[in-house]
Write a structure and sequence with these properties.
4-stranded antiparallel sheet, globular, NADH Oxidase, about 170 residues, alpha+beta
Length: about 170
């Protein structure tokens, strides 16, 4: 099996992180992979906000937890949150953002980091205070939150993937 297929087949979501901040070079490579994802009509709708500031990360986590209705950290203590937003003007923006998230999960795995896609980005970035925050960092376009990719060094080890369910492929010959 080639390296890419091995990487795809060995990736699993990480749900426990160490406090160690990943190196900037690794974060940049992950972002580059997200920006390299295919997009409908090459409109390149996804926007990535790299949150490494602990205070902002914690506020984002608290907003996510409030929407979820829990008082725990939905980001599993990961030190980095890569928020994927996408410009609504592109008709394929949700799909394009999802592809960016997928590429970034694989890139994180390739860099020896754990990652996990955390939902509720849409709901968080519909809140007036978070819309204002986006404007404060320079995002003026009408965007939708697609997902939060948490990234960091696993607390223990990178988990192994769970067995794949059968009966999900149908061949028409």
């Amino acid at each position: 099996m080639n390296d890419l297929l091995n990487l795809i087949n060995s990736r699993a979501s990480t749900k426990a992180y160490s406090e160690t901040m990943p190196e900037n070079e690794k974060i940049e490579e992950i972002i580059k992979a997200g920006l390299s994802a295919a997009s409908g009509r090459n409109l390149q709708a996804p926007i990535i906000v790299a949150v490494t500031n602990k205070d902002v990360r914690d506020k984002l986590s608290a907003a996510n937890a409030a929407i979820m209705g829990v008082d725990t950290d939905p980001f599993y203590s990961a030190p980095v949150v890569l928020v994927v937003l996408a410009k609504k003007a592109a008709h394929t923006y949700v799909y394009d953002g999802s592809l960016a998230l997928g590429n970034m999960m694989l890139a994180a795995h390739a860099e020896g980091l754990g990652s996990c896609w955390i939902h509720r980005a849409r709901e968080v970035f519909e809140l007036p205070e978070w819309k204002e925050w986006l404007k404060s960092i320079g995002i003026e376009d009408e965007v939708e939150g697609i997902g939060n990719l948490i990234v960091g060094y696993p607390k223990d080890k990178i988990p192994t993937p769970k067995e794949k369910k059968s009966g999900r492929v149908f061949y028409v010959k």
